[in-house]
Amino acid sequence: MIDGAFNILKLYFKNKIEISDEEFDYWKSFFIHKEIKKNKFLLTEEDICRHIYFVTSGCLRSFTIDKNGNEHVIQFAPENWWISDLNSFSNEVSSLINIDAIVDTTILKIEKEYYNKLSIEFPKWNNLFMNLLQNSRGAYERRVLSYLNSSAEERYIHFIKHFSSIAPQIPQHMIASYLGITPESLSRIRKHISDNK
Amino acid sequence: MIDGAFNILKLYFKNKIEISDEEFDYWKSFFIHKEIKKNKFLLTEEDICRHIYFVTSGCLRSFTIDKNGNEHVIQFAPENWWISDLNSFSNEVSSLINIDAIVDTTILKIEKEYYNKLSIEFPKWNNLFMNLLQNSRGAYERRVLSYLNSSAEERYIHFIKHFSSIAPQIPQHMIASYLGITPESLSRIRKHISDNK
DNA sequence: CGGATCGTTGATCAACTTCAACGGTCGTGG
DNA sequence: CCACGACCGTTGAAGTTGATCAACGATCCG
Q1: A145, B90: Cβ pair inside 8 Å?
Q2: For the domain that residue A110 is a member of, what is the CATH number?
Q3: pLDDT (tens digit, 9 = 90+) per residue, A25-59?
Q4: pTM metric for this prediction
Q5: How many CB atoms lie within 10 A of CB B11?
Q6: Mutation choice for B interface testing from A74, A140, A174 by most B CBs within 10 A
Q7: How far apart are CA A26 and CA B89, in angstroms?
C-alpha cells in the first residue's frame, strides 16, 4: 500500500518534470505516508497548517464554516492533487479552513522544513510548486468568473464535466456547497437536466 | 512626471524588501514608463501579454467579455498595484482578458525577458513576486467565498471599505460588474444603504 | 434494529434580473 | 463654444432564480 502511494507520487513527478530515480528516492524520503478514514480531519480551523498534502487515493475537501454555521466547500482534492492552507503554511498563522476526508483516503505529506529544503536544493521542485500556485490562482480566477456569468445549472454541468472521475463519490450536498447553492436547488437542477434528456 | 513614477516604484520596493539605492537603479533600468489615457487599452483579448504592469497613478481594470457581450470586471488596479494576464505572460498563449484605463493612468512596465533576468539574479525579486502570486490567489479564494456566503449588499459594503481610496473614481456599472450584479441592482442597494443611515 | 443523515418534493418567499423610461452629464464635432 | 448624441445612474413594474421551511422515504452505520 505504501509503495503504491509512493509510486503514484513518482508517476506524478515523472509526468511533470525530468527526475531521475535517485532524485525521486531522495525526495521521497521527506514524505510521510498516512491513511485518513472517511470524515476524519487532517486540519481544523485555528490550527497552523504545517504540511502540504498529496492525495494518492480517495478524496479530501477543504471548507470553511461561516457565522451562521453553514459549511462552504472551497476545494476537492482527489488522487494526484495537492491540498493545504497555503496562507497558514507560508506565514505560520492560524488556519481559517478545515480539511477532512470525504472517503477513506491515503496521502503523502511533507513538512514545511523539508519543503523549503527541497526548494533550495532543487530549482525544478521550486518551479513545479510555482506552477501549481499559478494554476491554482488561475482556477480561482475562472471560478470567480463562473459566478459572474453562469447560472447554477451551468456551473453544475461544468463541475460534473471537470470532476467526472470523482463527482460520483462526492455527496450532493457538498457539490451544492461548492457551487454556492442549497442542496434542494441542486436536486431540482439535476431533475431539470434529466427531464430534458 | 517620470521621476515621480519611479519614486513610487522605489517606495513600493523599499516598503516590501531590503533594497539599496544602487540595486533599485539597476532594477529601474528594466522598466519603461508609459501614460495611458482614460478608456485606452493596454491589452486586448487574443494578444499575448508580454509585460507586467505597475500602476503609479490612476487606475486600470481587467475584464472579460462573455458570449452575450457582457463585460465582467476581474480586477481593478489602482496606484501601487501590479496587473497582467499571468497565464498569457507565463505560457505565451493568447490572452483571454482585456486591460484598459478607467482614468488617465501612468504605469511602469517590465518585459518578460527582464522579469526573468531579475528573477535569476535576485532571489528577493523572485520572492516578492512569489508573495504577490500567493496573495493574489488568497484574494481570489476570499472572493469565491464571498459569493458562497455573502449577499450582494454585503459584498458591496466590503468592496467600498477595501477600495475606499479609489472606489469614488470607479463608475458604478463597473463596480456592479465586479460584484456580479446589474447596475440597477447596485443602484437600489446604494439607495437601501443610504435610506438606513 | 433504530437514529441520523441524505436526497427529494411541494409551497412560499426573498433577492436579483429584465425591460422600459427619464433626467443629468460628458465629450465631441460642427 | 454650443448642441447633440451617447452614456450613466436611477426608478418602476414584472419576471426569474434560487432560498427557506416543512415533510417524507431511503439508506447508511453503529
Answers
A1: no
A2: 2.60.120.10
A3: 999 999 999 999 999 999 988 899 999 999 999 99
A4: 0.94
A5: 11
A6: A140
A7: 33
How many Å apart are B180 CA and C23 C1'?
A: 27
Instruction: Please name the residues in contact with A15: beta carbons below 8 A apart, sequence gap of 6 or more.
Output: none
Task: Report which residue type is found at B179.
Answer: L
Closest Cα partner for B9 from B27, A90, B22? Answer: B27
The answer to whether the CB atoms of B140 and A143 lie below 8 A apart is yes
Which band of pLDDT confidence, cut at 50, 70 and 90, is reported for residue B197?
Answer: low
How far apart CA B65 and CA B169 sit, in angstroms, is 22
DSSP A151: -
SS3 B128: helix
C-alpha–C-alpha distance, residues A44 and A58, integer Å: 19
In a domain, B163, yes or no: no
* Residue B183 included in any domain: no
- Count of domains observed in chain A: 1
pLDDT surpassing 70 at residue B103:
yes
What pLDDT digit, counting tens, does each position of B6-23 carry? 999 999 999 999 999 999
Say what the pLDDT of residue B97 is: 94
What is the tens place of the pLDDT at every residue in B56-70?
A: 999 999 999 988 888
CA dist B99 and B186 (Å) reads 23
A140 with B145: Cβ contact below 8 A: no
C-alpha cell at B147: 459569493
Asked if residue B128 belongs to a domain, the reply is no
Cα–Cα distances in Å, from B50 out to A138, B37, B113?
A: 17, 20, 9
Contact list, A141 vs chain B (CB under 8 Å): 74, 140
Q: How far is B140 from chain A (nearest CA, A)?
A: 6
Domain extent for A20: 2-122
Cβ atoms A54, A78 nearer than 8 A: no
**CA nearest neighbour of B143 among B102, B189, B183, B180:** B180
